[in-house]
Design a protein that fits this description.
Length: 485
């Protein structure tokens, strides 16, 4: 070893290489250090350029106000009095008078005694929090790791320019104390995640009171699914907000179980991941059935020329600020659709039932009695899942979105009848599975029934190879999710 070192040190090339490496390391360190100092300088200059408030107010490391103004201090003093009981209850009831008329005295008392957790305090969560506080909810826990940015101001319920840079949970408390000083806020400045779930959703301190409701206002799919599963498994009431990006028709807003959500990418992804975890229903959601189409805005990625300007992280106003890549608002242009599709699903259910009866009569030589009391093991929810999630609201044959229905793809090779019991207690049902059904227009279904299901042709004789491959792929996808329904 010593011999090697002696030769290396005596070798001029080795010495030059070592010197070059050492010099390069020093130069690189100097450059990185200079860049860091320049970033700090630019951030400092930007902060200093923002006019300060009274008494030489400046910004903290978060970019938020380091000193509270007189109004904030007065609101906090009033809130301390109200929460300690030094606040006339008649004043609160007067402020909530219209709520009391609408809800009734008992309903208002329940709200005033409630404990609600809001996870996610952005565009959805902030408006929800404001509504809860103004409605009389007395204990609200806010969970969010993010800060108010300039781009937040187009949708946040209460944030102002003065709030840019401070945590969203702090912003909500700061503004709502001026409106409802008796409300107690428990702020959790952190991201919801599995390991923190027990703590973030724990009972209210000193009372042992579990949350009466949890509001899921998260826009991250992994975190959303994690929260919903935790609430489902622990028996916590939860309501989940689905996606509304580029949607602008308020008449299309729906409230329903997670199993009934349609026309929304976030709800579709959430529903599928929950199914993989064994959860298919039991979670109330708020979602929009508005579809994209001609004249509708769509979410677009950041233009390539913006990426050419440098790393995305450098595009923020201040270091470590999140960059908003996707737009939030959508604008309609001559776009309108009929609200809801319940009647369509009910019609499809009737068509599927009728189709099973026709097949069974055809296989038994026209015996009508065989189909009396026949039941089909599918629901409206099942069919909505197929049409919207698997077939995306279009025929698998031609892609047409009009007059849709569902029917068997292949002709059964054996009886479809399942019988249990005898006599008056006999139960008759079809062996139909969701993965047997394909979406078509009614005209296509009529031909398919005549030529394939009750005819002598196979699907290979009626359709081209591309169509068959497409349908078979969709049927396999259906089979994967069918076991979780």
């Amino acid at each position: 070893m010593s011999t090697f070192l002696e030769r290396a040190t005596s070798n001029s090339r080795a010495q030059l290489a070592a010197t070059a490496i050492a010099s390069g390391a020093v130069v690189a360190g100097a450059i990185l250090g200079y860049q860091h100092l320049q970033d700090q300088k630019r951030a400092s200059e930007l902060k200093e350029s923002i006019p300060g408030g009274s008494d030489g107010e400046r910004l903290t490391a978060f970019g938020g106000s380091s000193k509270k103004d007189k109004e904030d201090l007065r609101n906090e003093q009033l809130a301390r009095r109200a929460q300690s009981g030094d606040y006339d209850d008649e004043l609160i009831l007067e402020q909530l008078a219209r709520n009391r008329v609408f809800l009734g005295p008992e309903g208002l008392d329940k709200l005033r005694d409630a404990f609600v957790v809001v996870v996610g305090c952005g565009g959805v969560g902030s408006h929800c929090t404001v509504a809860l506080a103004r409605s009389g909810v007395a204990r609200i826990r806010l969970v969010d790791f993010d800060q108010v940015t300039l781009s937040s101001l187009n949708r946040h319920a209460v944030a102002t320019l003065a709030d840019v840079g401070i945590p969203k949970v702090q912003c909500l408390k700061r503004r709502l104390l001026a409106v409802t000083p008796w409300v107690r806020f428990d702020l959790r400045l952190e991201k919801y995640w599995d390991q923190a779930a027990d703590r973030l959703l724990e009972p209210w301190e000193g009372t042992g009171r579990k949350p009466d409701f949890v509001v899921d206002a998260i826009d991250n799919i992994d975190t959303k699914v994690s929260l919903l599963k935790y609430c489902h498994d622990h028996g916590l009431h939860v309501v989940s907000a689905m996606g509304a990006g580029c949607k602008s028709d308020p008449t299309r807003m729906m409230v329903g179980d997670i199993s009934t959500t349609t026309d929304d990418g976030l709800s579709r992804a959430t529903r599928r991941r929950l199914k993989l975890r064994g959860i298919t229903q039991g979670i109330p959601t708020v979602f929009s059935t508005e579809k994209t189409g001609d004249g509708k805005a769509e979410l677009l990625p950041l233009p390539e020329d913006e990426f050419q300007k440098g790393p995305v992280g450098d595009l923020g106003v201040l270091p470590d600020f999140r960059v908003r890549i996707l737009p939030v608002l959508g604008y309609p242009s001559d776009y309108a659709q009929v609200k809801g599709r319940d009647k369509m699903y009910e019609g499809i259910l009737a068509a599927v039932q009728g189709g099973e009866e026709k097949i069974l009569r055809h296989m038994t030589g026209g015996d009508v009695s065989i189909t009396l009391g026949l039941k089909t093991p599918v629901t409206v929810s099942d069919l909505a899942f197929l049409v919207e999630d698997i077939y995306k609201g279009r025929s698998a044959i031609t892609g047409l979105p009009n007059r849709l229905t569902l029917m068997r793809w292949r002709k059964p090779t054996e009886s479809t009848l399942l019988r249990i019991g005898e006599g008056a207690s006999e139960q008759k049902s079809s062996n139909l599975k969701l993965s047997d059904l394909v979406c078509m227009t009614k005209e296509e279904a009529t031909r398919h029934d005549k030529e394939v299901l009750r005819g002598d042709k196979s699907v290979e004789e009626v359709y081209d190879s591309a169509t068959i491959a497409k349908v078979e792929k969709l049927l396999k996808e259906t089979a994967v999710y069918e076991k979780y329904r």
